[in-house]
Write a structure and sequence with these properties.
- It comes from Corynebacterium phocae.
- The chain has one domain.
- 82% of the residues lie in helices and 0% in strands.
- The chain contains 10 helices and no strands.
- Helix 1 packs parallel to helix 9 and helix 4 crosses helix 6.
- The radius of gyration is 17 Å and the shape is globular.
- It starts with a helix and ends with a helix.
């Protein structure tokens, strides 16, 4: 139990630091680890909740740089994508969910990496709608709302400072929607979340925000991004392997 609590404390701290420095990373880093510890259903719903709180706290810090108009337009479409993902969570076997979530995380990483290269510019409302729907779907299923919005940011040539700031309320709303929808549809619970686990999760997150705020502007965003991508990839691969082994042994 000590090792589990230590792992949760460490991974939430690391995720909060990376998100504060680079704009995203909390759910991508913490998601795979919590999913392996608590399972693909309870683990991801806890990630959704923690990510929502983390992003809300960060929103208060970066509020002056947020483009509230873009946030207000995109936010409702997060719900549109969240509902079908919750249905999948409720109906899929846990072993298949591990594999599916792992594959989705890897796909999100590949897409985000490719989007960092030069893309044809996009404009208008339709790309924002697509980013909102896919972000809601990805967050509810795998705790991955950031990559679709990051891809849109790259393609629309969104100012990086404004994007990182505006992403925070988007992640906060997306996480809250995912938790509410899954609980309402019976697609997840927080039954495995003990008081000690809550303390470790929120303690690591708050400490990470404090450390990340001190490092913001000093630490290399490129290095933070690479670290979060590496941890996410390792966790996603571990989830896929665990899912496959579970299927083989049944």
């Amino acid at each position: 139990m000590f090792l589990i609590i230590s792992a949760i404390l460490g991974i939430t701290l690391a995720g909060a630091v990376l998100q504060r420095v680079s704009g995203m990373g909390f759910a991508l880093v913490a998601g795979p680890v919590l999913m392996l510890i608590l399972g693909p259903v309870d683990g991801i719903i806890l990630v959704n909740l923690l990510a929502a709180v983390n992003a809300a706290l960060t929103t208060a810090v970066v509020r002056r740089d947020i483009e509230w108009g873009k946030f207000a337009f995109m936010a409702p479409f997060l719900l549109v994508g969240s509902v079908p993902a919750a249905i999948m969570v409720a109906r899929f076997d846990s072993s298949w969910l591990l594999i599916l979530v792992g594959l989705m995380l890897l796909s999100a990483l590949v897409a985000a990496t490719l989007s960092s290269r030069r893309m044809a510019p996009v404009a208008g409302k339709i790309p924002m709608v697509i980013a909102g729907v896919t972000g809601g779907f990805g967050n509810t299923l795998a705790g991955a709302a950031g990559p679709p919005v990051a891809i849109y940011a790259q393609a629309s040539r969104w100012n990086p400072l404004a994007f990182r700031a505006t992403l925070q309320p988007i992640l906060a709303v997306s996480g809250a929607i995912s938790v509410v929808v899954k609980l309402a549809m019976g697609a997840g619970s927080l039954d495995q979340t003990t008081p000690l686990l809550w303390v470790a999760s929120f303690g690591g997150m708050v400490l990470g925000i404090i450390v990340g705020t001190r490092l913001a502007g000093k630490a290399s965003q490129a290095l933070a991004h690479k670290l979060s991508m590496s941890v996410t990839a390792a966790g996603a691969l571990a989830a896929i392997v665990r899912g496959v082994v579970s299927l083989v042994n049944t």
